């Protein structure tokens, strides 16, 4: 029997799904891994059946995936955190991907479908009584209006669903429950409306500029795109737009339909006010004495539409955004609270090191693009290797939101990342350039990895288990599956240390090895230290006598 790695993975998935079916059949409510495994394994069985007569195509399977389990069949909070199940299966006409969004979509589900292929008896419906009060506001608390992460009232269809830590932002600050009666999804986010709406691009005087799309296709302009550089078929006063961009939330855009005319708010770019990229109309400081003259010459020669206007334009009103909407887009900010998993512990954000209106966002039409949030004209040595954007950081200094910069495998900055040519307050050393990778940290908590100080280095599988447990540093000793290593944490000889350092180089963890300190004389101890041991281990199995202790110390 020859199995591919994917087929071996599916065998493990089947085992987990079958176990989940057995637990469900005897009336147990499923946890997150069990629910996910059950839905995925049943989908694969339906795919394997290949019954075209029942129209079991991708669309039908997506629907079936949402009908298997109801909220009464899973533990509290599971429906809130199980957002998606994806399986790849071989249909009669080829391999296809089936994606089920929000698989726990009903209260009662369909147990016969959930137990498909198991030959297990279907329990009665009342074997899973709905938990009392699940999903309701805490007793005795103010009944605040709940909002989805996109900021829409429950029942409304938000324009674009946005996943947050718990996918729900409760608007009423007084609706927080931190005792045993705490309800709400794991990772719930509660915004602090005492701080009011969030003002974006504060202090930048905006103008309203009329823009017309003369083309036959829609044109979309992102928040940080230099407006003078926009599509040639947009007709407006390009001279007035020099050194300005749209005054909209970072990472959003304005769409101009064919033939449409409308006023849009523009604000000055910040930072060094250097315009680069786009259509190369401007390539340098926007405030240079000859910048406007050169720009308008490039507009004329390039055939960009221009309508002279001004000299003054009406001021644009300040841009504000509801805190719930802000938290959904960029993560919680100052004063907001975040529930830690499904516990009764809550975090309160103490400070926000990002800039309202100049947040770093990666993706199509977002902020981290050339000439916008990504600086032009800088080499690899001057920019970050990787940036983690808008992460909620929990460390010994506090609870705060920030961008995190990584260079040469080390964290080199925590603060505001981006392009100092167009953004204020970019932390020194945290420039984003063409050589920078991005990791979206919105909706995630970033904290230090764990340290395990008692490791028997017996086998490489230790590393996999450590990573899965949130550990990033392993301190201990050993040489592999030797008798001494199984009993003690000592790496005795310089050759052993060399071997262990070499073998651990391929594993994504920090390693520290201890030598054996059990000797009454100094000979041998310096050798192991010079080889790279970080310390000495005294273990009674090797004879921890008073003389050995004194000598080792």
UniProtKB/TrEMBL annotation:
Q: Where is this region: Disordered?
A: 122-161
Matches recorded under Gene3D superfamilies? Urease, beta subunit (2.10.150.10), Urease, gamma-like subunit (3.30.280.10), Urease, subunit C, domain 1 (2.30.40.10)
One example of the protein's molecular function in GO is: urease activity
The Urease domain covers 449-553
Q: Which InterPro entries match?
A: Amidohydro-rel, Metal-dep_hydrolase_composite, Urease_alpha_N_dom, Urease_asu_c, Urease_beta-like, Urease_betasu_sf, Urease_gamma/gamma-beta_su, Urease_gamma_sf
- Residue positions annotated to bind substrate are 539
Record key words, sorted: Hydrolase, Metal-binding, Nickel
Pathway membership: Nitrogen metabolism; urea degradation; CO(2) and NH(3) from urea (urease route): step 1/1
Q: Which GO terms describe its cellular component?
A: urease complex
Signal sequence span is none
Q: Could you tell me which Pfam families the record lists for this protein?
A: Amidohydro_1, Urease_alpha, Urease_beta, Urease_gamma
GO BP term, example: urea catabolic process
- Which top class of enzyme applies to this chain? hydrolase
Q: Keyword NAD on this protein?
A: no
Q: What post-translational events are described?
A: Carbamylation allows a single lysine to coordinate two nickel ions.
Say which domain of life the source belongs to.
Eukaryota
Please tell me whether the keyword Hydrolase is annotated for this protein.
Answer: yes
**According to the UniProt entry, which residues carry N6-carboxylysine?**
537
EC code(s) of this entry: 3.5.1.5
Q: What PANTHER family does this protein's entry cite? A: UREASE
Q: What name does UniProt use for this protein?
A: urease
Q: Which organism is it from?
A: Micromonas pusilla
């Amino acid at each position: 029997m020859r199995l591919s790695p994917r087929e071996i993975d599916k065998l493990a998935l089947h085992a987990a799904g079958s176990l989940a079916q057995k637990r469900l059949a005897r009336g147990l409510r499923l946890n997150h891994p069990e629910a996910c495994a059950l839905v995925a394994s049943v989908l694969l069985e339906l795919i394997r059946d290949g019954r075209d007569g029942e129209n079991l195509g991708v669309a039908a399977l997506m629907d079936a995936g949402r009908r298997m389990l109801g909220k009464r069949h899973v533990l509290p909070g599971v429906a809130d955190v199980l957002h998606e199940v994806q399986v790849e299966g071989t249909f009669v006409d080829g391999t296809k991907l089936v994606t089920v969004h929000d698989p726990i979509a009903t209260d009662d589900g369909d147990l016969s479908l959930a137990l498909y292929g198991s030959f297990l008896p279907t329990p009665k419906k009342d074997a899973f009584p709905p938990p009392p009060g699940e999903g309701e506001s805490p007793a005795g608390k103010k009944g605040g209006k709940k909002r989805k992460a996109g900021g829409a009232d429950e029942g409304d269809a938000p324009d674009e669903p946005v996943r947050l830590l718990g996918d729900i932002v409760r608007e009423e600050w007084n609706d927080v429950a931190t005792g045993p009666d705490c309800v709400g999804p794991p990772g719930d986010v509660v915004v602090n409306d005492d701080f009011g709406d969030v003002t974006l691009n504060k202090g930048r005087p905006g103008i309203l500029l009329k823009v017309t799309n003369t083309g036959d296709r829609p044109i979309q302009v992102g928040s940080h795109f230099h407006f003078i550089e926009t599509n040639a078929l947009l007709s407006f006063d390009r001279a007035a737009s020099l050194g300005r961009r749209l005054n909209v939330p970072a990472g959003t855009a304005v769409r101009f339909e064919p033939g449409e005319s409308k006023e849009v708010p523009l604000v000055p770019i910040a930072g060094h006010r250097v315009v680069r990229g786009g259509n190369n109309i401007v390539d340098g400081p926007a405030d240079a004495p000859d910048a406007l003259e050169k720009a308008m010459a490039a507009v004329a020669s390039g055939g960009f539409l221009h309508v002279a206007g001004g000299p003054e334009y009406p001021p644009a009103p300040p841009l504000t955004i509801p805190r719930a909407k802000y938290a959904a887009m960029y993560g919680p900010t100052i004063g907001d609270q975040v529930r830690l998993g499904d516990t009764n512990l809550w975090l309160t954000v103490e400070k926000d090191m990002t800039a309202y209106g100049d947040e770093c966002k990666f993706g199509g039409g977002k902020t981290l693009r050339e000439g916008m949030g990504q600086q032009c004209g800088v080499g690899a040595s001057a920019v970050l290797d990787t940036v983690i954007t808008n992460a909620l950081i929990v460390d010994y200094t506090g609870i705060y939101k920030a961008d995190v910069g990584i260079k040469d495998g080390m964290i080199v900055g925590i603060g505001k990342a981006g392009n100092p040519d167009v953004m204020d307050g970019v932390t020194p050393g945290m420039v984003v350039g063409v050589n920078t990778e991005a990791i979206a940290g919105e909706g995630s908590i970033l904290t230090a990895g764990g340290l395990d100080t008692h490791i028997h280095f017996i086998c490489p599988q230790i590393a996999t288990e450590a990573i899965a447990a949130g550990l990033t540093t392993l301190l201990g000793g050993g040489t592999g599956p030797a008798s001494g290593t199984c009993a003690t944490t000592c790496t005795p000889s310089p050759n052993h240390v060399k071997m262990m350092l070499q073998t651990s180089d391929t594993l994504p963890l920090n390693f520290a090895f201890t030598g054996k300190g059990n000797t009454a004389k100094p000979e041998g101890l310096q050798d192991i230290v010079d080889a790279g041991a970080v310390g000495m281990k005294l273990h009674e199995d090797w004879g921890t006598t008073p003389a050995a202790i004194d000598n080792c110390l």
